[in-house]
Amino acid sequence: MRDLFKRLASWLLVAASLSPLAGFAIEHPGLLLTRDGVESIRANLGKAPLFDDSLRSAREDVDQEIALGIDVPVPQDFSGGYTHERHKRNFFVAQKAALLYQILDEPRYGNYVRDMLLEYAALYPTLPLHPKERSYARGRLFWQCLNDANWLLYMAQAYDAVYEFLSVEDRELLERDLFRPFADFISLDNPQFYNRVHNHSAWGSAAVGMIGVVMGDEVLIDRALYGFEASVDVNARDNDGGLISTDGQGRGFLANLDAPFSPDGYYTEGPYYQRYAMYPFLAFSIAMENAYPDKLVLQQKDTVLVKATYALLNLADSQGEFFPINDAQKGMSIINSSLVTAVDAAYLYGEQDPALLSVASEQGQVALDQSGMAVALAIEEGHAKPFLKRSVILRDGPRGEQGGIAVLRDPDAGLETVFKFSAHGLSHGHFDKLAIAVHDAGREVLQDYGLVRFVNIEQKGGGNYLPENKSWAKQTVAANTLVVDGQTQFGGEYDASSRNHSDLLFSDIGDDSFQIVSAREENAYAGSVMQRTVAMLRSPQENPVVLDVLRVTSDSPRTYDLPFHYLGQVIHTNFSFTQDNELRVLGDGHGYEHLWREAVGEDIGTSATFTWLDVGRFNTITTATQNDDRLFLARLGANDPDFNLRRDPTLIVHRESDGPTVFASTIQSHGGYDPVSESAVDVPGDVDRVEVLLSTQAYEAVGIHWHGGERSLLIVAHREVSAGQNHKLGIGGREYHWTGPFHWVPLL
Amino acid sequence: MRDLFKRLASWLLVAASLSPLAGFAIEHPGLLLTRDGVESIRANLGKAPLFDDSLRSAREDVDQEIALGIDVPVPQDFSGGYTHERHKRNFFVAQKAALLYQILDEPRYGNYVRDMLLEYAALYPTLPLHPKERSYARGRLFWQCLNDANWLLYMAQAYDAVYEFLSVEDRELLERDLFRPFADFISLDNPQFYNRVHNHSAWGSAAVGMIGVVMGDEVLIDRALYGFEASVDVNARDNDGGLISTDGQGRGFLANLDAPFSPDGYYTEGPYYQRYAMYPFLAFSIAMENAYPDKLVLQQKDTVLVKATYALLNLADSQGEFFPINDAQKGMSIINSSLVTAVDAAYLYGEQDPALLSVASEQGQVALDQSGMAVALAIEEGHAKPFLKRSVILRDGPRGEQGGIAVLRDPDAGLETVFKFSAHGLSHGHFDKLAIAVHDAGREVLQDYGLVRFVNIEQKGGGNYLPENKSWAKQTVAANTLVVDGQTQFGGEYDASSRNHSDLLFSDIGDDSFQIVSAREENAYAGSVMQRTVAMLRSPQENPVVLDVLRVTSDSPRTYDLPFHYLGQVIHTNFSFTQDNELRVLGDGHGYEHLWREAVGEDIGTSATFTWLDVGRFNTITTATQNDDRLFLARLGANDPDFNLRRDPTLIVHRESDGPTVFASTIQSHGGYDPVSESAVDVPGDVDRVEVLLSTQAYEAVGIHWHGGERSLLIVAHREVSAGQNHKLGIGGREYHWTGPFHWVPLL
């Protein structure tokens, strides 16, 4: 039966390649859902439960809206407000209703879409710019062009699917009063929005391209693919502080496809925005594949969109939630509808990977087009295989030359470590080079704060980014990475950070019992070079442990802060601390102004242990310390007049150093607490102490002393990191010989 | 088939009643598991999956321990430490192994129990008092006699089940060197532990009684039932500050069964300790029912233990977790093993209520005795019916004369309000008369803090109560109830609080769409009388809303604080507030020293709205205010040197008043936020504002203005609260006539 689906898939592809050539009107429907696709779907209804369920669910949704009646209100609100949410819901529902019209051949769905579009055609010519003035590119239906582009991309599909249902007069009216002026407005009238390399422009160009395909308008398709000539103020910025100017990266859909995606499919803004951008990228690429296959849009950059789908799936934790890299709202996950389209498309237009079928099953729905039917049929036939998430290193940059992101995963436990050594990530990037985050079975052990925004909650600043996103979330101290002299990396300057990236030094993720990644950052702080090495290893008790070794060399005495953003209740420390009687902020600016200093640990000794309990699991940081180190227990929430920040805690290792210094720490999640049986299991964890045995310009050596008395050793090379390089090094009277950039001795 | 089980059950009861009379040795086994029970179990193995699963699970557990080998270490640790946990595990495992021996008739289980008991018999005579000196009644195996009693109660069952397996010599040795001195130690040597009315003494007397039954020792059984003569220092207190002296309430098991249980089965310490005490109460009562049915122990107080099981199930939230009334660790739930025994016993020895079967299914296990088999067979035969939790009012006090607890439940939504107007609750009581707590589908909307203790986590103060339990958790400001002049109720004096209780004024919980309970407290603050009326009603949109009206009358000007202990992130307020630049504590003593003042709202207007988001749900307090009121946003964590407290937030309405004043508020959980679709539903909720329309010595009238423009009205009488009383009252030019203590007008 597998072959049958391959045949189905290739037949669909062949059918698509028979579509008319550019310059001619396409068959309708002809975007994501094609006329041939409709036939194959109708032939298979009742045979693929996941498709049937998705169809039923869409039908219930649309029928409910039809019963409520159409409302096309005069625009007024920010996101979260009524008019915003109504227009947003309209384009989702119209697209669904139009697909239902095609699949079910029931005229009432066609009528609903026609009536709604005609109402828009009556309203649109009367609209000035949206009354909310916050955006650098105000829309007409919405407060920002971005949402207008969302509307057009969905409505293009709705129009395509009811095209044949409409009278010629209605079509002429819609194209004249609505679609053409709409497409021109978000492009020609808003070059600062349209001509960038940014997810905004991906949406804009895809939307213009989609409606261009429907209308058979080569001018619009050309404008979609390549942008248009327009002068842009090179210093202009968007609302997030991102530069408008694309700085020679080109413009239009193809440039947007090229620049932000790395050859590995990593999208430089991070998975939260990648998820958002995947839909327009895929929608227009597939539409072009179906309508103008000779343009080879889907095949661009070695079919990077299929790779990008895998990259996204790999950038989700064990529960399917995306790691909140850069600006990212937590909780966004692979069940998002944009991922449904991506997974189904990657299946049909990719290699029909059976592992994608298990992801689709987890999503619980499929797209209402031929890709969704192909996936649902294959699942029903039992072809699904597990999607196994392993450790992965994804390069960043258009050519993979701008560092990257590593995810180390313990295959048996749910422990995952994200290590970021990427480019800045455009306007949604954070100043957190060499940051780590640790997750355990979907729980955050060391968190990345994410963004400071309540997306679509109008009561919180119109649902938009809040001031603390810039003053806290983007700052270096908000991340689990080193802060030098209390300053944010690159002085918090977007331009400087955007010109630089960290570099991968070496990695070895092939052995489940010991995985290692090492990266270097030379530009974040003038005069300082940082190398961070992150390993996931096994204790003698076979429990996974993260070893984190950060070495910094500076050209003058510096003050260093290494925050560990834990979550939960303090259970045990091996040092004493003094609570402050009045709480003051930890510092001025660079995010420190948001941290209340709750307590200070002093006289730390040579290894500090910090154990906390969170959601039934114990976690311990054990870090090699120097006697003058101070440990700050701090909590977020200062200078937060509108209570926009969570009151999350952090532990900061504070060190003043004249010379090179090493922060070596283990992080472990262990044991657990059950409030029903009231039993506590393995509160201490496996690590007794961590010790820096040696630190030179060429090597560092870190020892782990386990509670059972065993010792392990990691040696990392700084200078000679090639795989074939032989090394020898004496430590404590013993000589070690090895080949390659690191040497791990599990039991000394 | 139902009849078959009734027959089985009554046959078992009849069989039990044929057991030997007092003064003769009983058949073995003869406690919870009887010889006849063993036969019926063996006959039904393989027929009742839930029993078979429970048996398999017990077998896996015990086999694993047998493989590990027996360890009976010299006592050394607090709870959470190795020796404590090992001895605790030993008695659990030995009891299970002995039951397995009976059910499976495999000698290796008998050998295991024998060998372990002989090791204890060798160790016990050598033991001094436990080296940890914290307890008012130190044990020998454990740091407190309470745990020694736990050990004896389980080991008595283990001994009973292997009694026939042991040689006469072994039995003599065990009784001489272990069981008799053990029973004497926890009773005769520790009257301050044994002769009280307290859960400690329930355990103590039940344990002594159980071993007495096994050994056929009437002296011990008598001592168990009635205690023994001993002089007690009337001022002596336990480690929680509770008085040792029982003050005429009697002593021994029967007194413990009488005094703390109300006729409704409410246990005055609250459900957390009731759950803990249920096991010894049931175990010894059932043992007596089986061995000495003429003593009618199980039938005491109208079979209160069966009522108590229902009370416990009704004091759990919609997810089965107990409301944390008084000292209570959150997360304890009806799946606790103690509740398994209780539910199975209440089924077999009660009325064979099919609703209990669905609870047993939810628990996922049954007791390894005839009650467990009866339940499992009945479930397998399909007799289970849903256990519907409705609103309930449980009286407190031995005769139901000391106030009580109400739980108002909306039957369609998951909203539940707990209202406490009970007695103090012995040494585990809190000073929180008239407190409320609100839960929504298992989530805390307004929380009761619970206790400050990490039970069995040795690293946190030996797993014992922490100082902040007294300085915070027990204090009035820690609860959702009124604080007068910044003082805790009864000046924080246990004795005074224990002598007093609140009183139920009136209630009507018969109508799902409007339920109401009103209670009065006259003693908590000298010169102040408080009446709180809590209603659960429906908005015009049919959403459940809590209306909370608290009237206080004092003999002089006072300052009032009404805290609302919410959880989550602030989303919207209709008032402005100013954040403090440095955090100071909110006050001195009475719990205020633990609260950081984060911000102050001023110029509040006449109705304050406070909306927060927690775990995907919006919640709003709307409270009628006076213009001089201040609203404190505070956060827990000050004066907490060991970080024992959660950093939870609170909203406090602060009012200075010369005369009587009313705090009228609505609390609603509404709408929700989905981070995957990023959609926010119903952020504002239904309530626009709350207004006190009238407040006299006889009546108060509160209006709710809904967002849709509708208005509702509640009038509450203070003086004439009888059901048949006719009232008339003019408000705003309109006259209202009604009968009974309250008048609810859903739409004015």
UniProtKB/TrEMBL annotation, chains A, B:
UniProt superkingdom: Bacteria
SUPFAM superfamilies per UniProt: Chondroitin AC/alginate lyase
Residue ranges occupied by any Alginate lyase domain in the UniProt entry: 96-315
Keywords per UniProt: Lyase, Periplasm, Signal
The keyword Zinc is assigned to this record: no
Domain Heparinase II/III-like C-terminal: 395-625
Signal peptide region: 1-25
Localisation: Periplasm
UniProt-recorded name of the protein: Heparinase II/III family protein
The organism of origin for this protein: Congregibacter brevis
Lineage start: Bacteria, Pseudomonadati, Pseudomonadota, Gammaproteobacteria, Cellvibrionales
